[in-house]
Amino acid sequence: MIDKIKKGLNKRKVKLFLVFLLCSSLAWFISNLGEQYTNNATFDIYYGSTPDSLLLNGVSKRNIKVRLRASGFQFLMFSFKNKTVEVDLSQLEKKGPKYFVSPTTYRSQIENQLSKFIRVEDMDRDTLFFNFQKLYKKKVPVLPKVTIDLEQNYLMDNNYTLLPDSITVMGPKTDIDTLTGITTQTLVLPHTTNDISKKLKLILPPNLKNTKYSDHSVTLSAKIFKFSEKVFKVPVEVVNVPEGVGIRTFPEIVSVLCRGRLSAIKELAVSDFVVTADYSSLKDKNENVLDLKLTKKPDSVNVVQLRENKVEFILKRQ
């Protein structure tokens, strides 16, 4: 019984010793974290804010060595962070054909990205040099691959629109010179009766890796409506008839078919149309047939068609 008690006390002493050892080690570790240290580090460089008119092809350095001074705690936190710094190329300098960023400029940028509790004691002093390729701009049309089939008795108000109908491309001259237009994705709309508003992706050339595009999609819009139609009887006017000659056409009145919105159709009159036949267009004076042309028509309707394209005539001496 006494032996068991002694064994229990010994175990408690060991546990207490380990707890005190752990606490003292932790206190020593925390105490040391407050001390200042100097250490070396290597940063990977990300080059940002490249000028729009230039394409970055090569750089003289991809990483940079620095000597830092900070507390142990700061170094502990620093070890968990991404060791990448950005060099802002909006502060790019040029001398002759060479582009560069001076050590003073990029050191200031890097210091501003570090914690205020970390001091840069030393850093590479190499000037950063860059190889750029000039970029050019060009405006190209959007080429729609769109098929719209209207339901019977429906019309499209004018034509569909694309917004934008052209885009700006920027890239190496050899690349953008190959572009004459950018096509849209294919769209087929059968039996259409309602207004259209569709976003279409642009099919961008996959081989032009260094080319940028102002837009990656366009919006297709169209107004669709159910039409009314009406036939107008319009007299034929023959023009350029020689003096002293009379002419009579058969028929003297022709039909003109109009299709559009009912409100527009109701406002039309025969005087809104002029159908002419040009006597001077005859190549053979022995012929007695003239072509008809609709020389005046209203803009308020969508479809205006002549039912007859030709008329016969006879001449009468006056």
From TrEMBL:
Signal peptide: none annotated. Pfam families: YbbR. InterPro entries: c-di-AMP_regulator (IPR053154), YbbR (IPR012505). PANTHER family: CDAA REGULATORY PROTEIN CDAR. This is YbbR-like protein. It comes from Arenibacter echinorum.
